[in-house]
Amino acid sequence: MNSSATLKFAPLILLVAIIALWQAICTFFNVSEFIFPSPVQIVYALFDLWGAIMGHAWRTFWTTMVGFGISIAVGVVLGFIIGSSRFAYAAMYPLMTAFNALPKAAFVPILVVWFGIGIGPAILTAFLISFFPIMVNIATGLATLEPELEDVLRVLGARRLDVLIKVGLPRTMPYFFASLKVAITLAFVGTTVSEMSASNEGIGYLLISAGSAMKMPLAFAGLLVVAIMAMAMYEFFSYIERHTTAWAHRGQGGQ
Amino acid sequence: MTSAATAQEDRSAAIAAAAASIPRGERFVDFDGVWLAYDPTLLARGEFAVEDISLSTRPGEFIAIVGPSGCGKSTFMKLATGLKMPSRGNIRIGGQAVSGPLKIVGMAFQAPTLLPWRTTLDNVLLPLEIVEPYRSQFRAKREEFAERARRLLSTVGLQGYEDKFPWQLSGGMQQRASICRALIHEPRMLLLDEPFGALDAFTREELWNVLRDLWSEQRFNVILVTHDLREAVYLADTVYVMSKRPGRLVERRQIEELWNVLRDLWSEQRFNVILVTHDLREAVYLADTVYVMSKRPGRLVERRQIDLPRPRDLEITYTPQFTDIVHELRARIGAIRKT
What we know:
The complex is a heterodimer of chains A (255) and B (339).
Chain A: H1 4-28, H2 39-48, H3 50-84, H4 86-101, H5 108-115, H6 119-143, H7 147-154, H8 160-198, H9 203-212, H10 216-244
Helix pairs in contact in A: 2-10, 3-4, 3-6, 3-8, 3-9, 3-10, 5-6, 6-8, 8-9, 8-10, 9-10
Chain B: H1 3-20, E1 29-36, H2 40-45, E2 50-57, E3 62-66, H3 73-81, E4 88-93, E5 96-97, E6 105-108, H4 120-125, H5 142-155, H6 171-183, E7 189-193, H7 201-218, E8 221-226, H8 229-235, E9 238-242, E10 249-254, H9 257-269, H10 280-286, E11 289-293, E12 300-305, H11 320-338
Parallel strand pairs in B: 3-8, 3-9, 6-7, 7-8
Antiparallel strand pairs in B: 1-2, 1-4, 4-5, 9-10, 11-12
């Protein structure tokens, strides 16, 4: 029972077991589909309204990607500034942490007033919620540069910018890709939350409208679609991380 | 002030006198009454990291500084490279006052600090991407620089490992690569801060020889900071001892003084001496006749009569006649090594 193949398929086995158990409970206790739909009912709703669901899913997906793209750009720039200047670090870090503590769902009504209903608040909420981990990781990667390495380069007459670009940034890449995995899931949260109160399209809207019409299987189907999108993007960035920063993950192999 | 402290001050003064014995124009490294406190508050309290450092070296000299941990050896390194400015006193390197980090210096530390995302070859090339004049020619002359790096790596025994990443090399190999990186831009001075401290005894002794060979060939100045006395005495021409913090130089020995022990014994008793050595200066200083042997299978390929007058003093090793003979023999050896 301990072979590596079994270990590899373990999550799948657990998932199948949970779904089977779920189905069994719903069938056996005749649970109403308005309360807690069974897997079969969810899948049925998914295929029944496939077109509509995919339309909403696509909307959520591309607004998240746009917001995420903005947070990469802003996160990298701010992270670079904070990580390279002691003054910027001291000045900005506490404010950023305080900002990050604010629940972004609370921003949505304000964004609606400024940008109207629809994609504006969705993109911006995704951005606001997801740029922080990227910024922090880049800043950390730059601020923790080994002094010996810096000395070796300074002795050659390297300027601070040389050291940051030749050594600081490449060193930060593992942290950066790791932060992307976290940030993308946060971005999906941001978009969905915004769509729930301020949009006519997207999975968030689908959840709210399905909920109010008591179409629970449809609501669950929407959740399932968002989960799959978020997981797929997480795996995508995980793949990129493994293939571009192999040098940082070799603890098990070399030496 | 305790008597021990005054004794130390006297020693420092004696060493300063020895430093002054080299004519000003011939000094490469020149520390003159250098004191360093790390920040203004410590300076105000009179708490120094190093005190009254006066030493000078000739070009191409190999000096070692030995002392207990925390005595200020690394502080000395930072002063020598211009990474820190002294609180008192003057430092001149290569005849120029030091006002900031120098470019004619290469440094290697106890930790190799190679960049893990670059291959060994790219790591060794890193200084050329930063230091002028190489930096502006880097794109144009990249192939030439890479060739130079390859040659340097093969001198230290790393041929075949140029395209490996640092984590694929052992600690000793990484340290060799680190030394190559310190030498790629042809510095006139090499500073080593306990470079072999993290290695096992066998690798350490192997790398001593690697360093010694590199130095005999290229004759840059070396300042080796170490806690290992054997290493210092084996490699260096002059060994300085630093006291514990605040660091003062309390002892200075020229290894060449050991030559005089042999010289005196021989001039007294006049037995025959056959001295086998790799050290040319030692051979020319002590002997009447020097033979050069080729590599295996060994043949005697050169015979040189040393007609320098006796009795010979260490001072003679700095005269032009002496250095001419040494250069001649070195060139001959270089020619043999290439065949």
